[in-house]
Amino acid sequence: MKTNVFLAGISTVPIIFSTGSKIENLADRPNIVIILADDLGYGDLSCLNSASRIKTPFMDQIARQGMVFTSAHSPSAVSSPTRYGILTGEYCFRSPLKSGVLTGYSPRLIDAKKTTIAEMIRLAGYQTACIGKWHLGLDWARKDSSLPMIIGDPWNRPNTRNIDYSAAVGGGPDANGFDYSYIIPSSLDITPYIYLRNGKSIAKVADTISGRDNPRGIFYRSGDIQEGFKLETVLETLTSEAIGYLKQQSASKSPFLLYFPLTAPHEPWLPSDPYKGKSGAGTYGDFVNQVDDCVGRVLATLEEQHLDKNTIVIVTSDNGSNWTPEDIKIWNHKGNWIFRGQKSDIWEGGHHIPLLVRWPGKISEGRVSDQLVCLTDFFATFAELTNYKRNQDEGPDSFSFLSVLTGKEPASPLRTSIIHHSISGMFAITSGNWKFIDGKGSGGWSEKGRPEDPAGQLYNMKSDPSEKNNLFDQNPDIVRDLKNQLNDIKNR
Fold first, then answer.
1. Handedness of CA 79, 377, 338, 455 (dihedral sign)
2. What does pTM read for this prediction?
3. Alpha-carbon gap, residue 263 to 21, rounded angstroms
4. CATH superfamily of 26-413
């Protein structure tokens, strides 16, 4: 697929980095910072979309100093399933969550027996931290264990609450390999609105907030809220917490993994005053500017603390942008670039995401790779980096791309296919130049299938990356083969 990334082509200079021999000195192992934006589109970044109405100088800096993956995908078109895949290296449809996302009151999703990237990398001597949006379920304590936790709609303020916010919360980051955590339970539009430090509320929860659904992009649900919690300052609070963690780690002799899942630019679009009116894409674009500035502050802190030379910085998104055709018309900005659809959809706009990686001295500057990669691949990549020997149940849907990072672009693809998953549970598979969708329509918020549509969809992604020409009826053999591949992987 052609792309308008402004960077130079793939470097031809090999960079040698041995992962086969044990690294005795922990100081030689790189720190890892994963910045996971929430609903950031491929076309939002000015380094990936020359026509973007948003300037993203700090993400552009990572692209210049490191590399861009032009065919990176989230395993799902929505939040919780993608986060599950990142931490476990496993497609979320293998878990109890088959479609949709979790509420703020959902129990823990990751089974206690699952190995996460944090647990794996901690065995290699790393300190680990999760700061930001969790959205993978928590085990809340109940005031009366004989009664249900909530009665009513868990998405909004319950009619009756039986939650003991003062008690320790289980099933969160600390139960999944993170030494330190400072999180909100789920998205910033989902209750409860509360900060948890190492599984404990930082303040009393004794009030409620009314929901809102106007104007465009200002949406959040009504429900319980912690004293001092302000939706408008959450992104700033989490960024300050992440910076504080980096400063603390600068004095440590151990390498660290910081998993920093942001709350933005997901709704509600609440940019701080310095960013208002800064972009050419309205409030959403202004919020993306603030996200970019968060990235810049992390980069500046790494440099100030002399951590930048030995730190892998990864910037990506959990799914595509929630950017509609109406938004495109109003602002002349394509948040998901040339890709069809948006967040929630099985079409490319739902899961074709930005992925930027910087690793000074290991990744040559200005590189671009069109390798097919998935965010589940972090697990295998970090396993190879730290010489961790996986068993067959660990990271089953993960393929290492460490060789690509270190300049040894393989002659054959690292992975032969990726499974995609929409909010409604519709599946697709990309294999080679082809993408097969097992159903009609977008599988998400964009479009429902029509009765007269073919039973499925088939697109040649090399010649038709915008998925305009459905070749399903013309290629029954390809459809059959891809459907068999899809079912084989789903049933493993």
1. negative
2. 0.94
3. 38
4. Alkaline Phosphatase, subunit A (3.40.720.10)
